[in-house]
Amino acid sequence: MTELRLVAGVDCSTQATKVVVCDAETGAVLREGRAPHPDGTQVDPEAWWQAWQIASDGLLDGVEAVAIGGQQHGMVLLDDSGEVVHPAVLWNDTSSADATTELIAELGGPEAWAEAIGSVPVPSFTVTKLRWLRDEAARGAAEVRRDAARRAAAVVLPHDWMTHRLAADRHGIEGITTDRGDASGTGWWSPTTNDYRTDLVELAFGRQLALPRVAGPAEIVGQTSFGAAIAAGTGDNAAAALGLDLQPGDVAVSLGTSGTAFARSTHPTADPTGLVAGFADATGEYLPLVCTLNAARVMSATAQMLGLELSAFDEAALTSPGSDGLVLLPFLDGERTPDLPHSTGLIYGLTRATMQPATMARAAVEGLLCGLADAVDALRDQGLPVQRVLLLGGGARSRAVQALAPALLGAEVVLPEPAEYVALGAARQAAWALSGAATPPTWQIPVGKPEPAITVDATTIRANYEQVLNNTRPLLAQPYNQ
């Protein structure tokens, strides 16, 4: 009997660190752990390390390789000795909204950015956070920001920092690595040329900073103190794509804290509208992606407003005959796609007839899915085929979402079994690096049966959503006066 070879994958996400230990050959999950992260959009990276230690405690015996899948875009600034000089500014911190507008204009507009890096920056991109910090320091903000701007010697991403922290022989900022997938979300690396645009770092920050070396997809970049090889790792969405083994014609639609729609592509994309980010993936190809800031929490927040448990909310949305023209724009935490960082949610079409819990629940699910349908259409506009949608994330457990998604997304919907796909993708990358093979190992992804689809007038629902969005966009673009 062949002895199992074990690999570990880590999902260092916004909310928690999750660890899976897998059979390197089959991908079977043998051990799992989890630990929460502190809330907030600016976090001390040491909290991630502490969460890793808790989540991995007792799991790592016999593990031969490990890889990190990390939340994209977050800015981690280090001094010459490798010390963190400012709390990590996470992807969902929208403080850099004004900086984003300035940077886009300074390079020559959205088309110039799409040509340079395959994407048009939004406030989640790291490059905008660099400009925000520079501006904060220049205007005499808190001492911690002025000090950080002075001391910063290197800028890295959460996955880069965790990968370096795992290495037993780390020295300051020497030897820090990243990968194509995560580098493509910074705003200063081009998936088309596979090179850094250091001029964009200087444009944002006013001076150069050290940047991580971009490792190959299956490269081993170090060794842990417990003797395991460290694979390159990647960003969370690229790791999820690897964990799902996305094939041509597949689009993953994830409903977590954020909503994402992404697909693998053999060619780079460059969308000047800014809807589609032209990211790289973790295999050497590309991962065009659309991201929204609002997803599963739209349903939980609406359920709370209605005084319903999530199961009752779901039942109400399913039993409602429709939303009767009630439209909910789900921009509860600002929005990235469409680019409305200052926006709030909006309900249109309130009447005595529509002010009912079931109608409101149905409108919330429809509004959430209409936003994601726009994301899927943006991928279609880039020439990507959409034959089936893989529905993921906590929000995908909603029976109402499953039932309404085929009509509103315009494709067959399949439901991969609930799993930690970012951590699984990182584990699959670790297994790939350990094997030395030319391609990742083949792991089977179990697929469940979604709720039967409901027949609805998707054309009218989406047209109502777009009309309300277009008519209120000038209002939504203005900062909300709390």
TrEMBL record:
Carbohydrate kinase FGGY N-terminal domain boundaries: 7-234
Main enzyme class: transferase
Function: Catalyzes the phosphorylation of D-xylulose to D-xylulose 5-phosphate.
Catalytic activities: D-xylulose + ATP = D-xylulose 5-phosphate + ADP + H(+)
Family membership noted in the UniProt record: Belongs to the FGGY kinase family.
InterPro entries according to UniProt: ATPase_NBD, Carb_kinase_FGGY, Carb_kinase_FGGY_CS, FGGY_C, FGGY_Carb_Kinase, FGGY_N, Xylulokinase
Keywords, ordered alphabetically: ATP-binding, Carbohydrate metabolism, Kinase, Nucleotide-binding, Transferase, Xylose metabolism
Site (Important for activity): 11
Alphabetized NCBIfam families for the sequence: XylB
Domain Carbohydrate kinase FGGY C-terminal: 252-434
Protein's name according to its UniProt entry: Xylulose kinase
Lineage, broadest ranks: Bacteria, Bacillati, Actinomycetota, Actinomycetes, Propionibacteriales
Known EC number: 2.7.1.17
Keyword Cell membrane appears in the UniProt entry: no
Residues holding substrate: 72-73
Active site: 236
